[in-house]
Design brief:
By secondary structure, the protein is α+β, with helices and mostly antiparallel strands. The protein contains 15 helices and 26 strands. The strands form eight sheets. The chain has an eight-stranded antiparallel beta sheet. A four-stranded antiparallel beta sheet has the order 1-2-3-4.
Length: 606
């Protein structure tokens, strides 16, 4: 596995995904779903994690690339005995059947290998390690021409744990089980499935799945609105977002992986295979702009259904099926990416109080109503009544808590503070609630909330501003900057042309920027001083510069950011300031959302 960068590609189908390394090895995959236990996790432990490698005896990788406008990935090997290609994908089909609708997908990985020239010898390293490699995995020939892999053990409470998967192939089983090589003279296939197949797959079925998946992606990308200048980058980011939307529910994952470190050797390693409500408003905005309103609608429906109404507490994040408990656990037996322990599954941040979440959810509810409209001359639908209840519940929570400290957008695990951005989003919550109420004719209630909205605005405008640093600060009364304040104008709290906002952008550019990339903040937190650039913040700066009229500088910075993408146009959560290598969980949805948002903004003025 390469340790120079995240040179991985991602394949997927909305059920789960897999990362493919620059040597064609699958180094991370969870089955049957994104948040299931790993089948392969070499990226988290070279020895114990498990992998599925295909390579050429006395040959090397010649080329890797996505098939144009798809999530199908090809690796070409070349050596003295000839050449061959590996085609990797997860099946996705356009049609509906009696048993599966268009949002369902199989928990399968398909690998097709085709000879291109000569008689190349293919080496196989099939080494699944199920359920995070907690227990030994045993593989053996099974029924229906498959290899069954099984892992059995007991958890900490003594409960039995059992997991299995099936590899269907027309390659001799002894070659796979013994880790040998064979001469490739005709196309071969591998279908790795979480399920024991009723219909035994063969080469023809594998090829049909490839054709169907190719057709699906061509149809999907044909509906995508491109940026004029950044067509390829926007399309690759859009496909990546589609890969990260959990097809059964519509939830969008923050990233595909867990525990890839923000800095090599440090402990800022988190599980991002969940859905953060915070990412919602940008998700919806961007999906609408690029023509995928159905994706946006499914996400909104999931989020509003998942979020509470009256007496339940709103969380900052949920499981991709709406789970509320995301208990964090450390896997001590895994060494971590390049030795960066701990490896965590689950995320304790779900317990945190972050007041910005009120504004983000309320903004989504308002945008949804604005786009759909209100039925006239008919009884209001029950769903709209429930949303009105949610709106009033959110405002009630803001009224009770907006003056309290919280943990902020960056999920600080130490003592709560009065974060400026959290207060801004409390203002957003009340502002959007007022607009919502007026659309549905609740004018008296809307007027009653004006005093609360204005009180929050005045408090932030005065106490959040710091004359000493010439900017809105991270928290009330401190001298630290925070990149999240670059979004204040985006949410309508302040105008982009307001001198205070322009001054905040300039101060952030001067103090948070290093080698063209941005820190989230530079003050010490509960884990020490940040040492890597948070990628999405650099995109936020691009858009803020463009909106403030500094469009040439914004374009220059954006083009520079695009040059830091990995070889396949993908971004991790963080970037190293010096080497520009990717760090953190990968690929991160928020980065790709922000990339599209910036591309569309820069396009506006030619």
């Amino acid at each position: 596995m390469s340790d120079d960068n995240y040179n991985h590609a991602i394949i997927g189908n909305g059920r789960s995904c897999a990362l493919i390394d620059d040597d064609s090895s699958i180094v991370f995959c969870c089955l049957p779903d994104f948040d299931s236990g790993t089948v392969f996790a070499k990226i988290l432990d070279e020895e114990r994690g498990g992998t599925f490698g295909l390579s050429q005896v006395q040959g090397n990788v010649k080329k890797q690339a996505y098939v144009n406008k798809t999530a199908i990935f090809k690796t070409t090997f070349e050596g003295p005995d000839g050449s061959f290609e590996v085609i990797d994908f997860m099946p996705k089909q356009c049609h509906e059947t009696e048993y599966a609708n268009r949002d369902d997908a199989a928990s399968d990985i398909v690998r097709i290998i085709r000879p291109l020239d000569g008689s190349p010898k293919v080496n196989i390293n099939y080494d699944p390690k199920l359920e995070y490699a907690r227990f030994p995995t045993h593989s053996e020939s099974y029924l229906n021409n498959s290899i069954k892999s099984t892992s059995i053990g007991q958890d900490a409470t003594g409960a039995r744990m059992y997991e299995s998967c099936y590899l269907y192939t027309n390659v001799p089983h002894d070659v796979i089980l013994d880790g040998g090589a064979f001469t490739l003279e005709e196309p071969k296939f591998f279908i790795l499935s979480y399920h024991d197949k009723i219909v035994e797959p063969d080469q023809e079925i594998a090829e049909l799945l490839l054709q169907a998946t190719h057709a699906y992606w061509l149809q999907w990308t044909a509906r995508t609105h491109y940026s004029l200048k950044y067509r390829d980058e926007v399309l690759r980011s859009a496909i990546t977002l589609k890969l990260l939307q959990f097809s059964p529910t519509g939830a969008v994952l923050a990233a595909a992986t867990t525990s890839l470190p923000e800095t090599i050797g440090e402990v800022r390693n988190w599980d991002y295979r969940f859905c953060w409500v915070r990412d919602g408003s940008m998700t919806i905005d961007v999906l609408h702009q690029i023509g995928h309103k159905r994706m946006a609608k499914r996400f909104i429906n999931w989020l509003i259904h998942t979020a509470p109404t009256k007496d339940d507490n709103l969380q900052i994040m949920y499981g991709i099926r709406g789970e509320k408990q995301l208990t964090e656990e450390t896997l001590e037996h895994l060494s971590g990416y390049l030795g960066s322990a701990p490896v965590r599954i689950g995320n304790a941040a779900y317990k945190q109080k972050q007041h910005d979440i009120y504004g983000i959810l309320m903004d989504l509810i308002y945008r949804d109503l604005e786009s759909r409209g209100v039925p006239t001359n008919t009884p209001t639908p029950e769903a709209l009544d429930r949303r009105w209840t949610q709106v009033r519940s959110i405002v009630k929570s803001v009224e009770e808590h907006w003056r309290d400290p919280d943990r902020g957008i960056w999920e600080i695990r130490g003592e709560g503070k009065h974060f400026v951005f959290s207060k801004v989003l409390c203002w957003v919550a009340v502002d959007r609630a007022i607009k919502f109420a007026r659309i549905i004719g609740k004018f008296e209630w809307a007027d009653q909330q004006l005093a609360l909205r204005d009180a929050i605005h005045d408090d932030v405008y005065e106490r959040g501003w710091n004359d000493k640093i010439g900017a809105f600060s991270q928290t009330y009364g401190c001298d630290h900057l925070d990149a999240s304040n670059l979004l204040m104008a985006e949410y309508g709290f302040i105008d982009h042309k307001n001198p205070r906002f322009i001054s905040t952008v300039k101060a952030s550019n001067e103090q948070l920027c290093k080698n063209g990339l941005l820190f989230r903040y530079i003050n010490t937190d509960d884990f020490g001083e940040p040492t890597s650039a948070f990628s999405v913040c650099s995109f936020w700066m691009v858009k803020a510069l463009a909106k403030c009229g500094m469009r040439e500088e914004a374009k220059r910075r954006f083009d520079e950011l695009l040059s830091y993408a990995n070889p396949h146009g993908l971004y991790g959560e963080d970037l190293d300031f010096e080497t520009k290598r990717h760090l953190g969980n990968f690929p991160q949805a928020y980065c790709h959302l922000a990339l599209i948002d910036c591309a569309l903004e820069i396009d506006k003025h030619g």
